[in-house]
């Protein structure tokens, strides 16, 4: 299958391109940055440029589109840029997928749409599944909520292209398990050692290769996916050395009523839908992936 991956040079994109290629697909990556891998077929282009975008779609003739390009970290850019870039990119790329005849198009959303990290945020229940209300409060989370709404809007316009979203948890690239500094400026060993760091994402995480596999499954199985559907993509356990039923309320007091449901060691997020619909089984956990010496004694 011909697959166009936007943002293919990024941390998650590199794993998505590699995974799709390993699964036998013909992958074209498009990004404003060149791919670090010389074997990847890539186009350097700004997808907000209409002419460049049309050229990309004409060359790629994608049967599936995986849309990852955008501003990927909250508070790294001015709010208006984050909102504008992410929402315009999503409309441009996903409507392009529809008009150029792709059979499926999946966009990266984010668990930040749930709206945690405000004093008043209170989960209705835990773990958070895709039916839980979304209450974004910062520009990045709002841009992702708009992307999810964009997917639903476009899904209403076509029966030929199945549009959906994946919400990856805190993505950990392979080199980050070995000690490379993450987008947040700390290492995974430091994130594990200081619960205040992982608490900002309610201790969620996902290995980039596992997340990539879910994007691949969505692209490969439009018959199993409903238009507008959203999938959480998180590891089954939290990024913490023990259950988070006591840790979570310490950092987010309003979770106290719901947190006992996590006493068995499960994540605060449910990926049950991806498992049920697409048989996605993320296998990589921090306990077996972390090779950074600074963390190995915490397993
Ligand atoms: N990293 C995470 O923990 C995480 C979690 C949830 C969701 N996501 C989402 O997953 C996606 C990928 O995240 P990532 O961590 O790989 O980010 P990243 O910053 O490493 O990759 C994003 C890529 O998009 C490219 N890009 C940005 N604007 C572009 C444009 N106008 N045209 C073409 N390319 C453009 C960038 O050059 C970059 O390579 C993003 O949409 C992000 O919001 C990431």
What does this structure look like?
The protein has 299 residues and is α/β, with parallel strands linked by helices. It has one domain: Rossmann fold. The protein contains 12 helices and 9 strands. It has helices at 11-22, 50-60, 79-99, 139-155, 174-177, 188-193, 195-199, 208-220, 247-251, 272-278, 286-289, 293-296, and strands spanning 2-6, 26-31, 42-44, 64-67, 104-108, 162-168, 171-172, 206-207, 229-233. The strands form 2 sheets. The chain has a 7-stranded parallel sheet, with helices on both faces. It has a two-stranded parallel sheet with strand order 7-8. α1 (11-22) crosses α8 (208-220), α2 (50-60) runs parallel beside α3 and α3 packs parallel to α4. The longest helix is centred in the first third of the chain and has 21 residues, at 79-99. Bound molecules: nicotinamide-adenine-dinucleotide. The site of nicotinamide-adenine-dinucleotide has 23 residues, from α1. Nicotinamide-adenine-dinucleotide is lined by residues 7, 9-13, 31-33, 46-48, 68-70, 72, 89, 108, 110, 168, 170-171, 183.
Count of DSSP-assigned helices: 12
Radius of gyration: 18 Å
Please tell me the total number of domains. 1
- Ligand types: nicotinamide-adenine-dinucleotide
Bin the helical content: 25-40%
Which features does this protein show?
seven-stranded parallel β-sheet, alpha/beta, 36% helix, Rossmann fold, binds nicotinamide-adenine-dinucleotide, 13% strand, 299 residues, single chain, 9 strands
Strand and helix map with partners:
Layout: E1 2-6, H1 11-22, E2 26-31, E3 42-44, H2 50-60, E4 64-67, H3 79-99, E5 104-108, H4 139-155, E6 162-168, E7 171-172, H5 174-177, H6 188-193, H7 195-199, E8 206-207, H8 208-220, E9 229-233, H9 247-251, H10 272-278, H11 286-289, H12 293-296
Parallel strand pairs: 1-2, 1-4, 2-3, 4-5, 5-6, 6-9, 7-8
Helix pairs in contact: 1-8, 2-3, 3-4
Bound molecules: nicotinamide-adenine-dinucleotide.
């Amino acid at each position: 299958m011909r697959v166009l991956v936007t943002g293919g040079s990024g941390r998650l994109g590199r794993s998505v391109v590699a995974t799709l290629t390993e699964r036998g697909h013909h992958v074209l990556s498009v990004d404003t940055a060149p791919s670090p891998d010389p074997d990847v077929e890539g186009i350097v282009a700004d997808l907000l440029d209409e002419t460049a975008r049309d050229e990309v779609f004409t060359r790629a003739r994608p049967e599936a589109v995986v849309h990852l390009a955008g501003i990927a970290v909250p508070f790294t850019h001015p709010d208006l840029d984050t909102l504008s870039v992410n929402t315009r990119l999503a409309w441009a790329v996903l409507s392009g997928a529809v008009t150029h005849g792709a059979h499926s198009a999946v966009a990266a959303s984010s668990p930040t749409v749930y709206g945690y990290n405000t004093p008043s945020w209170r989960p209705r229940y835990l773990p958070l599944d895709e039916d839980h209300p979304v209450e974004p409060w910062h520009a990045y989370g709002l841009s992702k909520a708009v992307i999810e709404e964009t997917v639903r809007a476009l899904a209403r316009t076509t029966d030929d292209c199945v549009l959906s979203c994946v919400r990856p948890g805190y993505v950990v690239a392979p080199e980050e398990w070995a000690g490379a500094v993450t987008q947040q400026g700390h290492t995974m060993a430091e994130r594990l050692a200081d619960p205040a760091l992982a608490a900002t994402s309610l201790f969620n995480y996902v290995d980039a290769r596992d997340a990539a596999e879910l994007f691949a499954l969505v692209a490969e199985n439009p018959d199993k996916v409903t238009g507008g559907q959203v999938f959480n993509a998180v590891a089954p356990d939290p990024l913490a050395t023990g259950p988070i039923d006591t840790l979570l309320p310490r950092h987010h007091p309003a979770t106290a009523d719901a947190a006992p449901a996590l006493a068995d060691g499960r994540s605060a997020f449910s990926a049950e839908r991806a498992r049920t619909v697409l048989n996605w089984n993320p296998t990589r956990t921090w306990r077996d992936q972390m090779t950074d010496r600074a963390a190995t004694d915490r397993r």
